[in-house]
Amino acid sequence: MVSEDALISELSFKAIRSSGSGGQHVNKVSSKIELSFNLAESLVLSDLQKERLQNKLSSRLTNENVLILQCDESRSQHKNKELVIKRFLQVIKDGLKVPKKRIPTKISKSAIRKRLKSKSQLSEKKANRRKPNLE
Length: 135
Prior knowledge:
The chain is an alpha+beta fold. The protein has helices at residues 4-9, 24-28, 47-56, 77-96, 109-129, and strands spanning 12-16, 32-38, 66-71. It is elongated, with a radius of gyration of 28 Å.
């Protein structure tokens, strides 16, 4: 796994004014935090990790391979910074997860027998619903 401290050192932050209601306070305080991480220029991640992240996060990356996350949940700039860092680390962790290889399993003979038996019972039931053939 990648060192979290090294990853955090590659992040850049920008404080901007938060949108929405809040009265006068919201108009004079920059409490919203915007985190940006340049995936292509990262020195912490290997080429394989960069490629995996680029595939998994393709919808969240800009054209320059920059991941941008924002947080304006709290009125505190420091709290928003903590929250956005936590969210970023979770996104990276999930993106680097290698999915387990699926091993196809064989259907048991008893399961096949059971399925065929229920099919024949159902067809027999439906056949009994028909009008008898009097010829």
